Amino acid sequence: MIGRAFRATFRAVLSDSTALMLLVGSAVLYSFFYPSAYAGEVATRIPIVVVDMDNSGSSRLLVGRLRAVQQAELVARLPSPQAALGWITDRRASALVLVPEGFERAILRGEQGTVALYGNGAYLLRGSTALAGVGAALGALGRDAATGQAMMLGAPAPPAFSVLQRPLFNTREGYGSAVFPGVTFVIIHQTLLIGLALLAATMRERHGARRFGAGELFGIALAFFAIGCANTAYYTGFVFWFQDMPRAAGGFGALAVATALFAAATVAAALALASLFRTRERPIQLWIVTSVPIFFLSGLSWPAEAMPGWLALLARLLPTTPGIHLMVGINQMGATLAEQRIELLNLAGLTLLYGAVAVARFGRPSARAGAGKGG
Fold first, then answer.
1. How far is residue 133's CA from residue 151's CA, in Å, rounded to a whole number?
2. I need a labelling partner for 21 at 20 to 30 A (CA). Which of 46, 197, 213, 365 fits?
3. Residue 258 belongs to some domain of the structure
4. In a shared domain, residues 233 and 338
5. How does pLDDT run across 119-168, given as a tens digit for each residue?
């Protein structure tokens, strides 16, 4: 019975082009289409202009340091702030560095040199990236000037400390590397959820409400469980490698257990949800309006601590909330199963909860219960 239902479910998927596209085609398309938007993960070489009104050795040294900054590219040295404003207005530059007269004189007196920075707020990422690069160059120049002043005063020349930055987990420090690993499991969750609901709604349109035996229902769930595990393996094993995303930090055994629990909770939720639909189009309409809220409720892009308490608890009823934390924690951050036990228990509880709902909605009543009702 289980094997027959397992094979029948795969035949139903293969014979339904829409379901096949949702369960298989969309997973493949998303794996190449979605990350392409973040191909340029980190903004670099943003054009900037300089107005040097001091024209001193220190200001020329600053300009030289600006040329070596990765985030910004010096494209012009202009004679006046008005000319620089024209460059920014025409979008030929995203930021302006204005070195006022008396810059070097202030440094030589032991005072603070002042530099004015202006960015184009219409393009916040480009402007902030350029200004961050300029800030790094100014910081380096400031440290050198402070060291020189200290040497003239007879203080030790070496700095008291130095800062060494090493990004963890998201080593490329890009937005795509931060968001795509989490979105991946929303994609897997939604395709399984809507694909199964679509097949159930189609069956209900053609044959009316139907009950299944325990073995038959388990066979259907097992078929979708296999699809969910295959999609997860495809993303974690190939797509993350192909797209050069942070990956493979956790052990294979931990990742296998996490995949199995995430797929099981998703399939149980899909079966419970599928029992509510009577028309074929409803699951697709649900997909359109729920994907973005589900991602935000997961707490990956907006911290759960900043949500209302009741909303954070409600989000725990979605398999994606513990699933994303579990899969990203193990696959990207190298967490162990013991460290992720709360997410594991959450997924196990959801599997039992939604599995019980699915059995109550789809399962056949026992012969004893039917006899008692007839009597």
1. 28
2. 213
3. yes
4. yes
5. 887 777 677 778 788 887 877 777 766 666 666 665 555 555 566 667 77
- Other C-beta atoms lying within 10 Å of the C-beta of residue 217: 22
Structure tokens, 81: 């702030």
What's this model's pTM, rounded to 2 decimal places? 0.70
- List CB contacts of 370: < 8 A, sequence separation 6 or more: none
3-state SS assignment for residue 119: strand
> How many domains are contained in the chain?
2
In which band, very low, low, confident or very high, does the pLDDT at 299 lie, cut at 50, 70 and 90? Answer: confident
Q: Could you tell me which of 279, 233, 286 has the C-alpha nearest to residue 255? A: 233
- Helices assigned H by DSSP within the chain: 2-15, 17-20, 26-36, 57-67, 81-89, 103-108, 124-152, 175-207, 214-234, 240-242, 252-274, 282-297, 309-315, 320-331, 341-362, 367-374
pLDDT at 252: 85
For residue 363, the SS3 value is strand
Report pLDDT for 177: 79
